[in-house]
Amino acid sequence: MSEKRIEWNSNFAFMMAMIGSAVGLGNIWRFPNVLYSNGGGSFMIPYIVSLFLLGISFVLVEYAVGFRFKKSIGRILFSISKKLEPIAWFIVLIVFLITTYYVCVVGWDLIYVVLSFTKAWGANPDTFFASNVLQATDSISGIFQIVPIVLASVFAIWFMIWFIVKRDLNDGIGNVSKILLPTLCLMVVIIVVFSLTLPGASIGYTQIFTPDWNALTNLNVWLAAFGQIVFSLSLGMAIAMTYASYLPEKSRLIDSAVTVAFSNSAFEVFNSIGIFSILGFMALSTKIPFDQLVTEGTGLAFVVFPQVFNTMGPMGSIIGPLFFICILFAGITSAIALLEVVTYAISEKFNIERKRTVTVICIVGFLISTMFATGIGSTILGAFDAFLNNFALLLGILIECIIFGWIYDFNKLIETLNKDSRIKVGKTWKAVIKYILPICIAVLWIQGVYSTIT
Ligand code: PFF
């Protein structure tokens, strides 16, 4: 049975869900390292250029398409041309696989939320992570080494996102985003303010805001900025398309896309002040060189930060849980957006009720996450992460630029966006989508291949 068309019951719910989908693990543990390794303060220039020129431009395509068609990605591409439908399913498949991987990492974080109250990772968080969570093993038998706690936490996250997405849009995703996102922002403010009071904080934050102007002449720095915007805004995965399809008439699309993109970046820049101050404190207290501490991803969150909380004394048992809960909230609001894309596409295509669809997706998803959460899977997880960063997301963007920039009548999208918005778009936007974005992606790929072979 297909449900009656659903709509966001308030612009606030839509904005919270959109910002929540963008603010995720990438903002917290990816951005600081990218910023630091690409010129510190001067990185903000390519970053802001990428945000406005490429990021916002692309988000606008998804907004316009979702809003105009009011359908899921499968149906949208089908109505443009039947031949394009398989491409939609390819994107949905990638989004589904990303969800399985993303949930696995958020599951690991849930373990750390619990451990952080008592710092139960012990004196050596690196060995703890490798042997209890990652299950590093090079044998195929690793797949059978299932650690119950890891599985239970991955299951718990799948259960939570199932529980949210199976409900009605406003009741589930809308309400949860309205609660989790403001709480997340409040917690980040507390962490940043506290971190600035730590001895050594200035070792951290001055480093990121010290510009290296030479970096601006390096193409890789510009590409890194573009890559961060792509990841951080979750571009190319039909998330904005899906959420915008639930918008009521008379919505101000451009204004809201700009607000979402801007809030996402403000979040990551602000949060990085806290991360760097904390790492500065660590550098001062342990005499470990600062640049050795600025890692990214799981290494930063599950190894370096537990070490920091060990060093902090009793305050570590307060800031530690806050930090891991921030990652949890940021992860959940992104995971529900990913799951919604898949759910909407499948339930609309096969005319299956939302609840049933989401249940099946979550069961299959949990089984795949189980693989990531076991020994053999941890190797796949690394490879998948690289595939995602260097290929999958960019491919999604390229496909959408070609379909909507070249095959579909682009002027219809301009008309849709300009209708009720205060800011208007025109020829420059069209040129960005048709030429500049595809060229940037091609250059990124060539650079990726080049750096792998050299
Ligand atoms: N933008 C979110 C983040 O920065 O974590 C969500 C996300 C991005 C999910 C990229 C998945 C992904 F591949």
From TrEMBL:
Q: Which Pfam families match?
A: SNF
InterPro entries per UniProt: Na/ntran_symport, SNS_sf
Q: Tell me the membrane topology, using the record's own terms.
A: Multi-pass membrane protein
| Keyword annotations of the record | Membrane, Transmembrane, Transmembrane helix, Transport
Q: Name one GO cellular component term.
A: membrane
Subcellular location field: Membrane
Principal location listed in the UniProt entry: membrane
Question: What sections of the protein cross the membrane?
Answer: 12-31, 43-66, 87-115, 143-165, 177-201, 221-246, 258-284, 318-346, 358-384, 390-411, 432-453
PANTHER family from the UniProt entry? TRANSPORTER (PTHR42948:SF1)
Matches recorded under NCBIfam families: Na_transp (NF037979)
What's the protein name? Answer: NSS family neurotransmitter:Na+ symporter
